[in-house]
Amino acid sequence: RMDPFCNSLSENHVYHLINKTKSWSDAQQYCRKYYTDLATVNDMTDQERLKEAAEGKQVWIGLYQMSDKQREWHWSQPGVKYNKSDTKWKTGEPSDNGTKTSNPTHFIKTEANPEMNWFQAQHFCREKHTDLISGVDQLNMYNDKEPNKPDKDCFIGLFRDNWGWSDGSDSSFRNWNKDVNPSDNKCAKLEEDGGWDSDKCSNTKPFICYDGECLKNRTIKKNMTWEDAMDYCRHRHRDLAWFNAPNLQRMVEKRAKMADSEVVWVGLHYTCFLEEWLWVNGHYVSEHDHNWENPRYNDCGLNGAMERGGSNKWVKRSSWEKHNFICAKHC
């Protein structure tokens, strides 16, 4: 039996070890109810903090295996995005008929090395260097500057899997133990030594939840104008809620459902000077982040709210209207 890890959303994840033994799905529900979600890991810094939070226990994290149809390519090095149009696949590739990650072969690095499978190679590179070579820029640099290229096929940091994070984030970071076949089971766990393995989702373990910076949201069941709501939140909590990330959006959606009004004020406002929508924390609203009911309708004196029900669309309302609102607060 393992303990689960839950995580709650923020710019810097705060991990919380939950010493209750649950199945993966029950751990997910717990984390979403009391924090944000099961732990997501973005890089080796997160991995080290996760290992420390686990206190030597075997715990659930937020990685799970989706359907085979959802398999995607990723680069091993965090932050390097895979773009099919930039890659130089051999004719007839990529396919699933070639070299598998479990087959020994060489891999690109700067010194002589033994033959390893892909996971062993990734582990070696992360331990001795930074990572397997990742991204077109690094490959081009290698081809331009490396005079003694190997005469055998070599692994690079490109892999394909159908694993995804519980909170819907696009982190491609994986830290499988080097002798693991992650396709054997459907849910991921952190082992006592800090490496990852897969396990049956029905098994019970402790788990880790995350909290971000750490922010939580509170629904205020008072009807106020947008400006009064902002003053209320800043005086008693931190500010009107902002959610410029998918996981934060989900947190606010849950709070919106608790409101008494049909829509709730959130930390969105339109600035006539810039002719842009801004969050109260000063960030611009990305074209890819919004969920507007009517994206083309903009005007001075408008502020942003969220529908209480349905698909929780963002709506634009005059600032003098009075609605419930959602405050962001420190944990």
TrEMBL record:
PROSITE patterns the record matches: C_TYPE_LECTIN_1, C_TYPE_LECTIN_2
Composition-biased stretches (Basic and acidic residues): 84-93
Residue segments, region Disordered: 84-104
InterPro entries (alphabetical): C-type_lectin-like, C-type_lectin-like/link_sf, C-type_lectin_CS, CTDL_fold
Keywords attached to this entry: Disulfide bond
Gene3D superfamilies recorded: Mannose-Binding Protein A, subunit A (3.10.100.10)
Pfam family, one: Lectin_C
Occurrences of domain C-type lectin (ranges): 10-100, 101-210, 210-328
Domain of life: Eukaryota
Compositional bias ranges of the Polar residues kind: 94-104
PANTHER family per the UniProt record, alphabetical: C-TYPE LECTIN DOMAIN FAMILY 20 MEMBER A-RELATED, C-TYPE LECTIN DOMAIN FAMILY 4 MEMBER K-LIKE-RELATED
Name of this protein: C-type lectin domain-containing protein
